[in-house]
Amino acid sequence: MRVNPIRPARLGTIAVFALAGLLFWVSFSVSGGSNIRTDDSLLQMSDLIRERDRDNARLEADAAELRAEVDSLTKRESGADPAGSERLARAEHAAGLTELTGDALTVTLTDAPPDAVPLLPGIPDPLPNDLVIHQQDLQAVVNALWAGGAEGIQVMDQRLISTSAVRCVGNTLILQGQLYSPPYTVTAVGDRDALRAALDEDPVIQNYRAYVDAYGLGWKVEENEDLTLPAYSGSTALHYAGPTE
């Protein structure tokens, strides 16, 4: 008896159906029976970030209360030694662990409108990155204020200390475990003329202000009198890498 050979076209059809079945099986395995075309995973991630932010805020508040108790006990123990108590007070002041009051400058940086157009002739249309505040912009303001002799600096509602790091992810500021969105404020206590001169002379800020003129990024400098910066309330413990055993 003669057996008819399978034609190439039929082989191709069988291969297509087999591949389709494999794709359906892989899709079902990945999704676990759920709809993988929704944004539920992204929503769950944003909810998780907000939950962690709330947890961080609660833990920071608890830590601040414990540090206040430790400070009270430390001052009570050092009360018998006036010289030691004075040294402790000077160290806490220099470290940013006490309130600071004085004349100040407040710098506010804001994203440009998303539909911004060139404000000067001969300027090209902006790219998305041209319209938002970047980490280097905020860091330049902080660095310039320190260079101008600032006695203390506050970014948003937090006091900076020597280990503080200004970091941005996208257009979101992450500072000492807290998340912030623009507009961003940076406040420094010190000689206002010297602080303003330091801002004007900084080359990174000069570049930023060129974008202010070109596309409408926000830049505002305000003077304050007898403004009080809060004491730093976060952890002062240092975390560092170590060799593996």
TrEMBL record:
Residues 49-76 form a coiled coil. Keywords: Coiled coil. Pfam families: DUF881 (PF05949). InterPro entries: DUF881 (IPR010273). Belongs to the UPF0749 family. This is DUF881 domain-containing protein. It comes from Streptomyces carpaticus.
